[in-house]
Description:
Layout: E1 9-18, E2 21-30, E3 33-42, E4 45-52, H1 56-68
Antiparallel strand pairs: 1-2, 2-3, 3-4
Amino acid sequence: MKREGAKSQVLSTEKLHIENKTIFVDLKENEGGKFLQIAELSNDRRSTVVIPLSGLAAFMEVLQKIAGGTF
Length: 71
């Protein structure tokens, strides 16, 4: 996960355009380990969520429940 002052390297990136938003999904790595960073750009706003690789499976389970309508 990102630490103050730590430089991260982008390992993989995907860009989505959904409605009036641009969403970047990046797999990154720094000295703290690998992490997923999801950034949303909409008008003049930027929001970011960072998920450590250790939490990615649980995050994906929640997304699959929501996408499948089983939440």
